[in-house]
């Protein structure tokens, strides 16, 4: 088969698998909705319960200033939360007889996985929109951002979602069951708590700063903040993109290698 | 019949130290039903998983649909359809959505996909349940949906791994009808089963897999000739009558505990009359007379002895 034929087969089968994934999400929305609860609850908790204390500790500005600080981090946390759902649903899917059927069909090998990624990224974008709407409802405003900055912010969210989703697919394939997949994916929820999502890295103890700095969430959060609120981005933009590209490549290679192995 | 749809030579597969297939040879003619029989754990499913490209073989020259399995698995996949032992339907979506998913993956144009899906759902008596999630289907319905999905791509070679295990007798007969119809249409069917009756009913050729090898292969009739011929069994209630009969029927194998005598016989009228004449001459009458012709059960137990619990009634014969 020639390269263009292979590509067109890959695209066609992947979009079929993506539709299957979205059909699952539409039939059983509870998994997606449950994953939204954590970021929304954290948003409300940190704004209405801890908001005054947090903003006082960060140089004032009151609750509304803290809403602005918090929202970019929570949007990316929402992406991490969706990725946990991906790991669980991939792991569950692999135990289904239908995946064995897919393996015996003349379809593009990777399309099963790409379908999960496509579906999950769309779910992540939808989840981010929901959390974003809650944020706007409680006072988040991004009046200074230009159309180009909005576009870049959206692009960053999609890229970040793609990166975490490919990693989550690898985690799901490597797990013997759904519980293990969920455990494997826990770092995707924990990492944002250890990042600059809730407090600036400057305010953290010295020994802890490297943990916050050398991980994908912090540069991505700082970039999103810069795009939406006009704060300094500096190197964080390139760092965020580099992290995302590296995670996509790593996750893709890991996932396709796991899937290529003979099933048990 | 123009050649072999499926051919395996020296197929080997081991999982760790455990050798599952130790040099399996088979050939299946186009347009025929081939049945692989064997006790649980004999490796039937492993053969299907390998021939359907799901897992790799350790060694062996394997061709399916004229394509080499190792060199061109995608070409093999384009020629085959597989219905595994465990239902290969997507339980989260409806029966119709499952069918349309298959149509999309076979790259059928939308209109044709809808037509094929609707036709097969109708044919397999699933039209009423088409809009319900497949997870709510009964076992028989799931199996029918499974086969219907396999047929969407119009495969020329179909692997059916224990297609009737767990089905009630009515569903089993429905499934047999489906399989016969497929072969009438020129499809080659590779069937594994643990029901000997199923193989006897359906298969043109039967192979018995035992200890990782093909223990015997042939038509049902050929296999039945492997085991000693039929026998006549006489049962008595009166011990003295039993002893008198045993004295005249010297070729019979006696079973003193059960008061039965078994003697080799093809079951013809002439042979039976000879036995009855001998009994008459001794002045005894059997309480029960049964004629046994060898069936696949006998073949199966003869070939796989030790691997399964032997049927006591068969032991008395030998």
By secondary-structure content and strand pairing, the structural class of chain B works out as alpha/beta
Largest sheet of chain A: none
Q: What's the pLDDT, averaged over the residues of chain A?
A: 91
Oligomer type: heterodimer
Largest sheet geometry of chain B: 6 strands, mixed
Helicity level of chain A, as a percent range? over 70%
CATH superfamily of the largest domain in chain B: P-loop containing nucleotide triphosphate hydrolases
State the helix count of chain B.
Answer: 12
How many structural domains of chain B?
A: 2
Distance between the termini of chain B: 40 Å
* N-end to C-end Cα span of chain A: 30 Å
Model regions low in confidence, pLDDT < 50 over at least 5 residues of chain A: none
How many distinct domains of chain A? Answer: 1
CATH architecture of the largest domain in chain B: 3-Layer(aba) Sandwich
SSE sequence of chain B, one letter per element: EEEHEEHEHHHEHEHEEHEHEEHEHH
Order of helices and strands of chain A: HHHHHHHHHHHH
Helix content of chain B: 25-40%
Summarize the structure.
By secondary structure, chain A is mostly helical. Helices cover 77% and strands 0% of the residues of chain A. Chain B has 12 helices and 14 strands.
Describe the protein's topology:
The complex is a heterodimer of chains A (264) and B (318).
Chain A: H1 3-27, H2 30-49, H3 51-57, H4 62-94, H5 97-103, H6 111-137, H7 147-174, H8 178-184, H9 187-193, H10 209-213, H11 217-229, H12 236-260
Helix pairs in contact in A: 1-6, 2-4, 2-6, 3-4, 4-6, 4-7, 4-8, 4-11, 6-7, 7-8, 7-11, 7-12, 11-12
Chain B: E1 4-15, E2 18-29, E3 33-37, H1 44-51, E4 59-64, E5 67-68, H2 73-79, E6 80-83, H3 95-105, H4 110-123, H5 139-151, E7 157-161, H6 169-184, E8 188-193, H7 196-202, E9 205-210, E10 213-218, H8 220-226, E11 231-235, H9 239-248, E12 253-255, E13 260-264, H10 269-282, E14 288-292, H11 296-303, H12 312-315
